[in-house]
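Bit of a strange request maybe. I'm writing a small parser for structure token strings and I need a real example to test against, not something I typed by hand. Could someone generate the tokens for this chain?
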Amino acid sequence: MAKELFARNKSNVIPFDQDGEFFYRKACKYVKDNRYIDALNFYRKAVEKEPENIDYMLDLAEVFTEMTYFDESNKLLFSILENDDSVSDCYFGLGCNFLGLQEYDKAEECFEKYLDRAPNGVYYEDAKELLEILRDEQFYLDVFDEFEFIDPKIYKMASKGKVLLDDGEYEKAARQLQKVLKLDPTLVFAKNNLALAYFCMSKLDRAIELSKEVLDVFPSNVHANCNMAIFLQEKGDSEGKQKYTNSILNLPTDDVEDLHKMAVTLCELKEHQKANIYLKMLLQYKPYDVKILHYTAVSAFNLRRFREAMEYWDKVDKLSPYNTISNFYKRYTQNLLRYNGEFKELPYGFQVPYEEVVFRVKKINEIFNTPKSELKEKWESNDSLKALLIWGLELNDDTIKRAILNTVASFGDQNAERFLRDFILRRDENKDLKKDALTMLKQIGAKEPYIAYVDDNIVEVKVNIIDMSRIKIPKELQNIADFTISNMEDRYSSGYQEQIKDLWVKFIKAQYPDKVPRIRKKEAWAAALELYYCMKNDIKISKGEIIDYYGISYKTLDTNYKKLVNVLEVQA
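Reply from user aminoacidic:
Good idea to test on real output. This should exercise your parser:
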């Protein structure tokens, strides 16, 4: 009888399958309460239920912006524009995101587009005000004032050295930073990064020597003090390590990036209690930074505050649902408590332990050998496959990444297209891999143009869409190359004429027909062309010299030069 009653009642249960509006309303409520992590979770569910609802996507993009997830917000806004470029609010959102990313020329361009397309728009006055600020010469000079005395070419070289260091290419990073310091021995941040490169190459004494050079001149330099504490710990000099650890704890912590360096250093020094305090201070400035939340969780775990650790990993799960790292450590902690296992401190890096890395790489290699029909079924029905492949893209192995991209492209569905589009919007990925992904998008019939990051700039790319040989350049545009050449005469040795003509022709053809620039002032493009030529041929010249010669503003030169770089680098 009881069994029959249960069956009868069970059949009357209404499935709890809500539509997108249910989740959207809950998300809006959480936003009003400033509970952005919970709001993010429900907005995602609303979009998942109704992927064509633009209002839901715009609100989700706005929440990403509020949380300073500018790239994630941009991905959503670009995906809307890919299907319907008339949604003008996207341009205002993109402008705000590029402003947050300090890509001011792109921000200006987006606000201009918004004002043109939405003269009665909700954000019209806001966009107008922001555009006026961006066009103010003083704002532009204030923003770039700290780089006034750094040669742009040298700064770019130093930045490339930092990227190589972050990617684990230590020897390449060291060679790059050595070149930088030969050109400008005063760049402290380059010396600090070179010291780290030496340390990672097991050249400990050279690393210590270089850090001492910095500290002799700047004894309160946060990065040099942090580096020394780590170097001396590695050397086994506990007294020296403690000296610099105390220095770190007594340094001012007003600057967010300095605070970040101090917190991460305390993690590496295994000063778990102090690290936990500094990480929580850092979270006041970066409350949604996934890596900082993970570090805070690990510090709590190492202090045996397991419930606290789990709460931080829960936040990471909500912020990054396809990450597989926080979930691994949550299961690890639960098993430790359930089975009363042996406690061991966890490392701080945002990665699973080495044994798990080996296991996952083996699993990914097995995926490549799985029959396509079986694999596609898993792709369509199981998010864990996508999560594992996303994890694989974080490995410093281009062979694995290329295999993952090929595998995903073979599915040829909307999810595969989104996966590839997201990949080309990653900032620090290999150019060749991005070119491969662009080709794959073309092969699966994805709508052009494709929006990609190239050299830290957003560009629109079409794959073999125009027969370049048939394009005829209008006379007024051709004259720019001649004007530039005449102005370079007597200031450069011969050989520049053909290069200038070739560069300008390539630039115009790449922009043809919709994006060919309107020539308001020919001096502006001549200046940018000359600067680009000099940078490409290792000819030392300052932007100030070019600005004075052509009688233009710093901002105009910088904007046009960046456009040349964006377009010509893609052509290359």
